[in-house]
Amino acid sequence: MSHDSIAARFNATGFSRWVNGTHGRAFRLFAGVAWxxxxxxxxxxxxxxxxxxxxxxxxxxxLFDLCWISAALGGPLSSRKIRAGQVTEAPVLx
Length: 94
Hints:
The protein is mostly helical. It has 7 helices and no strands.
């Protein structure tokens, strides 16, 4: 992976190191549960449904040790690979 890629630059930031670490993983789980709870409380409103839908991202990231931001930028989905420095480019589909 080129060290100039957006994913590599993101994964080298302090935020990426924090969010992909133990405390960040716990935060993602807490945030996912909070969004899901908010959504369930307001499930009769559009924002409740939106909150329940959004909760998928932090919940799955915390439960399965994923980094959706890195993946969206073309980097690895696995937080474990990011922590280990095994950052490789995602395959390009043609």
